Amino acid sequence: MSNQSVAAGVGLAGVMAHCGASPAGAVELLVGAIASAPAAPEPYGALAELWRDRRPELQESLEGDGSLSAVPAQAYFLFLEGDMDDAVMALGSVTGARPDVAWGTAPWFGDGRFLGAVSAEALAEACLRTLDHGHVLDTDEMRARFAPWFHALEVVSARSPVPESLAAMARLPRACGHYELAFALCDRADAVDRVMWTAVARATTWRVMGNLDQAAAAFEDALDLDPANWSLYLDLADVRAEQGDFAAAARLAAQGLEHEPHEVLLRAAAAAYRTRLSGLSGDLKALIALAPELANTTYRNLLIDYACAGPKLSRRLVAKARRIRNS
């Protein structure tokens, strides 16, 4: 949106708020202007004026309104009230829904008052909310849009290096393909205290990058820190399977089952990896029986592919497994 268009939108919002007695409608117009030019200061100035002059009406109209037209305004109003944690979480939610808009270029998001007060825990939660809708973020365009978020991560992680929060923060730059920042957050967390979540963040980043040896080493570090965590055995088993080491994958899945014998993911993975290793019909039958319980169809299909490549399997059983895969 051009500066002239932003000014026109702000002017019309002023008319609606005062002459038309519709502050909620004015907010909707101003959020539209922000969505078109999120770095422009004028809409925020108009919102601040509305908040000062018509706060009770705005609070009533915005209460419980989670629509896209309301959330960016709510985030800014929370900032004006000094509630930086709820402000950043609201901005994370709208960013997750519409990452095609550079919401983070809002002047308040880079303001020293915000960066100096927002907690590491809230910023970490906001980062997770940006990923809620599964949009593809690993592009140059997205990395440019998320640059203010990366700056916020640098500032807040240096001020408040809470290891668990930094590990969660690392998910956003990893999703954007900004691996250097993801690893830097892990390093900063480890300098304070070595925790399992940081090792998992590091392992997942290596895995996304395709470096399975480093991913396996990091998952092993995570297991050293939390040896009773069944999901870590599964993560490491899956990496070993990617490496073609199905003996290690089957062994790790079995170790995980010692800690959580009823977990369906572990049971299915163990059956698949044993099938690939030994070609026993009983293991493939076990996988077939468990397959309907696997909500993640991508993972289910991967396990079936591994299993069906096992030696000397019954063609009938393989065909039955593949029908499930293709359903």
From TrEMBL:
Entry keyword Hydrolase: no
Gene3D superfamilies in alphabetical order: Tetratricopeptide repeat domain
InterPro entries: TPR-like_helical_dom_sf, TPR_rpt
Keywords: TPR repeat
Record bears the keyword Ion transport: no
SUPFAM superfamilies on file: TPR-like
Ranges for the TPR repeats: 196-229
Protein name, UniProt field: Tetratricopeptide (TPR) repeat protein
Higher taxonomy: Bacteria, Bacillati, Actinomycetota, Actinomycetes, Kitasatosporales
